[in-house]
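User: Hi! I'm working on a homework problem where we have to compare a predicted structure to a textbook description. Could you give me the structure for the chain below?
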Amino acid sequence: MLLDYDPLLLQVALFILLNYDKGIDIPITISTGSMLIAGHLVSPIEYYQGLAAEQKQGSPMRLLFAQKAEEAQQQAKEIREEYDKKGNNEFNPLDKPILHFLYMRDAHFLLSAAFAFPLTSDEGFWWRCRLNTVTGFMWTALITKDATAEVTQF
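Assistant: Happy to help. Predicted structure tokens:
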């Protein structure tokens, strides 16, 4: 049977979610078929909190992202309880829509060997993608800085 997602990435997404309160991030470079994206995998809670923090105080988007962070945290607690009760063999992460996505911090689109967008490593952005759109990955975040590849090892 051909899967439309990588089971290892699903396990990593579950691991990050189950440990959301430990601040885990994992350097990664992902291929989505037409583009490479480098950054750090984070929990959906950190993702939404980060988006909220970048919005103007009191703006509708800040309120929306803050609410999404709270919802994600509640889902993470419920998933952790269910996982602890059922164990790894009976728990099905595909039943949890929050795990159908990968969430990244400090993401960069890698356009060529000497060019990344944004242009400097300190200008990364928040990014998420559907798990089933990932065609390949490596456990390093290739980030181009001043035309010199910088590799962060996992």
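For your comparison, note the following. The radius of gyration is 16 Å. Helices lie at 7-18, 44-53, 60-86. Good luck with the assignment!
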